[in-house]
Amino acid sequence: KRKTLILALNRNMFQWKYAIGHGYQVHNAYRSVGAAFKVYRNLILKTHMPLPRSILGNWTETMELYETIIVFDSPLAIPVIQFIRHHFPKKRVIVWYWNPVSNCHTVPPTAFQELNCELWSFDKYDCSQFGMKYNTQWYGKDDDMNDEGIEIKRDIVFVGADKGRLDQVFRMKEILSESFIKMDAFIIADKCTKKENLKKCLRHSLSYSQFLKLELESAAILDILQDNQSGMSLRPLEAIHYQKKLITNDKGIGEERFYDSRNIYSLENGLEGIRAFLESPYYELGQDVIRHYSFESWMSRFFR
């Protein structure tokens, strides 16, 4: 773990709390996120200027300690990889696609074509289409989030960015309400949001602790994949870690090690069976199944 460096755009995000707490090296790729920096950063991206060391994080001073660098599917990763290739050409660089290529925010794989790096993804379709290597999603449970004593306030919840899913979520909410199933949707507007749907969205973003609290207050989590996404989202992993039922349109969910029809309801079966599904008990999974989707297991698969 000491020879692998993860370069994040914001190491304070919830994904990295677990990794940092367990001794993994996670650094901010860039030194500053102030307004002046953003203007300068955008100028570099548009003009393809060489990236000066002064705006990068302090990881540049300790690069001799690392053999493998992991970066993410962002336009901001491209100048960072160019810097690494220029100054440290022998380092192994992995680009991890945490989003499907079809996502309106995602950088196309061709953008990394000339940078001599490995492309990995959680999405099996993207792996087959773009020659990427496959790894699962991962999840590190937040030990500070205790679900004991939390009151269940609703049957089903959907929490997340729009990503083209808002209309489907609200149609489902309306249909289920006719069967007296309480479903709430907390959706954050993004580049995919239609102007007429802005009024249905939250006016502010949510912290991950707020996001997770909404899920813990619910009997089941709704998981709606984006169009053309075949890779699993984080919601199923949140569900198995906090023993919540899952309702999903993920057609590949049955291939996952944690799949059990007592805990997971496929929307391919229609909405009629959701009431009975919600009323049945949760089936507890073995720890070996859950460990397969841990951060440690995710990291180890890069080195097989």
List keywords for this structure.
six-stranded parallel sheet, five-stranded parallel sheet, 10 helices
Determine the N-to-C terminus distance. 14 Å
Structural class given helices, strands, pairing?
alpha/beta
The count of DSSP E runs of length 2 or more, i.e. the number of strands, is 11
**Tally of separate helices:** 10
User: Radius of gyration in whole Å, from Cα?
Assistant: 20 Å
Largest beta-sheet characterization:
6 strands, parallel
What is the typical, i.e. mean, pLDDT?
Answer: 90
What portion of residues belong to β-strands? 15-25%
Query: What are the secondary-structure elements, in order, as H or E?
Result: EHEHEHEEHEEHEHEHEEHHH
Helix content: 25-40%
Choose one word for the global shape. Answer: globular
Low-confidence stretches: none
Q: Please list the strands of the largest sheet in the order they lie side by side.
A: 2-1-3-4-5-6
